[in-house]
Amino acid sequence: MESYGQMITDMRSVFLSGKTKSEKWRSTQLRAIVNLIEENAQKICDALQADLHKHKGEVIITEMELCKNDAINAINHLSEWMKPEKVAKSMMFMMDNACIQKEPLGVSLIIGAWNYPIQLILLPMIGAIAAGNCCILKPSEMSPKTAEFLHEYIPKYLDNDCIKVVLGGVPETTALLKERFDIILYTGNSMVAKIVMEAASKFLTPVILELGGKSPVYIDRNIDLNVVARRVSWGKFINAGQTCVAPDYVMCPKEIQGELVSCLKNAIDDFFTKDTKSSDSYGRIVNSRHFGRLQKLLEGTKPVIGGESDETERFIAPTVITDVQLSDKIMQEEIFGPILPIVTVKDHNEAIEIINSREKPLALYVFTTNKTVREDIRQKTSSGAFLANDTVVHGGLCSLPFGGVGNSGMGAYHGKHTFNAFSHSKAVLEKSLGMESAMSLRYPPYTEAKLGW
Ligand code: NAD
């Protein structure tokens, strides 16, 4: 396997030359990212259509606009983010300059996953560049057309000395992880996250781990189930359920389950027609391994909606299963596909117990008009994000940090949070040489009179 040592050594020299630290370099690269997206929109759509059967509309909303807006936000706020931040001072430091200076960490490694293959590379890169870092980007081999696009077009737009795309899968990533980086951002599953963290520990490299898990939805009584079903179905079935923050399972009181199912059916038919397979708005499972994994999860179940599949196209219909037990196979792992189990619960307190008995989720969704129920769930549970009365869309608000907690991840990004994640907050104290007599208190010999104790 090729060694990436020389490439990283060269990149580190460029970093140490200070090239990436100037505001001009950063804003030029960020502007180039906007151009890269705008001038190649059709190529991006074609790549994602080939990899995941993503409709152009979905690509615009969840990939291109998101990245473009994040880059524009970084351009607009760059000088403000780069400015040293004054801090409060106690009497002893009144004459001095005390501030926090954000400084770039150095050479960063960004390892992306396949489900949103543009976003998961570009969003971290935008913040890494804004913060003044060099970047090595490793897109997922599971979405090869998009990876090839990034490999071909990033060098055409961005500074090749400071930003490089490495193609490949496990062997290439393993070889990269043998090298020393100053920060690693990894998106993917928690098994591989442990490999990444172990490799990083050799150099005490900080890591940001963007992982997944089972994101629950609690649906309360006395709520407009038509609206709920549309918002849950959209978040669940977008990209054929292959979204890290997709609602994984629903919990609701038994008496509303029946009506919820009919509302979900209406929403699904409305979004994708009754013949989902022929809808160009509905995605496909990324590969046959994941298709087989999802088929196994469906074994022995009796879907009340969907359940159909076609291996040749890696198509699985939007599927809903009712009266699922917590011990069922489908409740043991992240589904990451278009299957929605419904677990009935007595009330929101039982939902809280279930949530707290499991790994901390990446997102937690609550549909309720009852403030007490909403606040109770928010206060008594822990999750990467908490969203009331919608699903998934919090990822589109770049002022909110996006990341997990516990098994769903470590660290967060998006917007200024990415800039912060790729920066070191350097404590700066610049003292004057005056006032030496006031300083004399700290010098030995220590006497009771001096210390006043
Ligand atoms: P994947 O298979 O694309 O793997 C992710 C990256 O890890 C790839 O670049 C791959 O080359 C690399 N990799 C895989 N195995 C490796 C190994 N043994 N050693 C070193 N590198 C290796 O993606 P995936 O893991 O199938 O992604 C799906 C998971 O990611 C889900 O759990 C999902 O919830 C999560 N996810 C999280 C986010 C988030 O932002 N939190 C976003 C997308 C996906």
Quick structural gist:
The chain has 453 residues and is of the alpha/beta class.
Task: Give your account of this protein's structure.
The protein has helices at residues 5-16, 23-39, 41-52, 56-82, 119-130, 144-157, 170-177, 190-201, 225-237, 254-272, 288-298, 348-356, 371-380, 416-421, 436-439, 448-451; strands at 85-86, 97-104, 107-111, 134-138, 163-165, 183-187, 207-210, 215-219, 247-253, 309-310, 315-316, 319-321, 339-345, 363-367, 385-388, 409-410, 423-430. It is globular, with a radius of gyration of 25 Å. A six-stranded mixed sheet has the order 5-4-3-6-7-16, with helices on both faces. A six-stranded parallel sheet has the order 12-13-9-8-14-15, with helices on both faces. By secondary structure, it is an alpha/beta fold. Bound molecules: nicotinamide-adenine-dinucleotide (NAD).
Tell me the quaternary state.
Answer: single chain
Ligand catalogue: nicotinamide-adenine-dinucleotide
The stretches of 5 or more residues where confidence is low (pLDDT under 50) are none
Number of β-strand runs? 17
Quote the distance from N terminus to C terminus: 67 Å
Give the number of helices: 16
Q: What structural class do you assign from the helix and strand content? A: alpha/beta
Backbone shape? globular
Query: Beta fraction of the residues?
Result: 15-25%
For the sheet with most strands, the description reads:
6 strands, mixed
Calculate the mean pLDDT score and round it.
96
**Strands across the major sheet, in which order?**
5-4-3-6-7-16
User: Helical content, roughly?
Assistant: 40-55%
CA gyration radius, whole angstroms = 25 Å
Domain Aldehyde dehydrogenase: 12-428
Keywords: Membrane, NAD, Oxidoreductase, Transmembrane, Transmembrane helix
Family: Belongs to the aldehyde dehydrogenase family.
InterPro entries: Ald_DH/histidinol_DH, Ald_DH_C, Ald_DH_CS_CYS, Ald_DH_CS_GLU, Ald_DH_N, Aldehyde_DH_dom, Aldehyde_DH_NAD(P)
